[in-house]
Amino acid sequence: MAREPNPNFMAGVPELMILRLLQEREMYGYEIVQAIRAETGDVVSIGEGVAYTVLHALEREGALKSRRRRVEGRSRIYYALTQAGLKRYQNLAGTWLTLARAIQTVIKQDSFQTFIQTFIMGGHHAAV
Known about the structure:
The protein is α+β, with helices and mostly antiparallel strands. The chain has a single domain, classed as Orthogonal Bundle (Arc Repressor Mutant, subunit A). About 60% of the residues lie in helices and about 15% in strands.
C-alpha cells in the first residue's frame, strides 16, 4: 500500500524531529530518516531529500555541525547538535507542545459536545 505524503500542517515537523534525535547522538541522513519512521511507528515518514534539505539548512544556520566518517568502507556525513541547535529545539518543542495542547482542548470539547448531543439530548442516558 502506497503511503500518502504527510499533510501541509506537518511543516516544521522534520526539523523538530531531527533536532530531537540528534540530542541523543550524532547520526547520518538515512539513519535519521529510518529513526523518525521507527520512533513514530511509521506515522511520520520523511524522504531523504527532505532530511538532507533540513540538515543542510540547520548546518548553515549553526544549529548542527557535520563530519565525514568512513564506516565499513563507506564515507558518511554525520551530524551533531550544537548549543544553538539545542536552543532552537527547545524553542520549537515549546511551540509545538503549546499548539498540541490547544488542538487537544478543541478536540476534547468536540468529543464532549458529541457526547452531550448523543446521550443527553438524544434521550439516551448514560449510566453513572
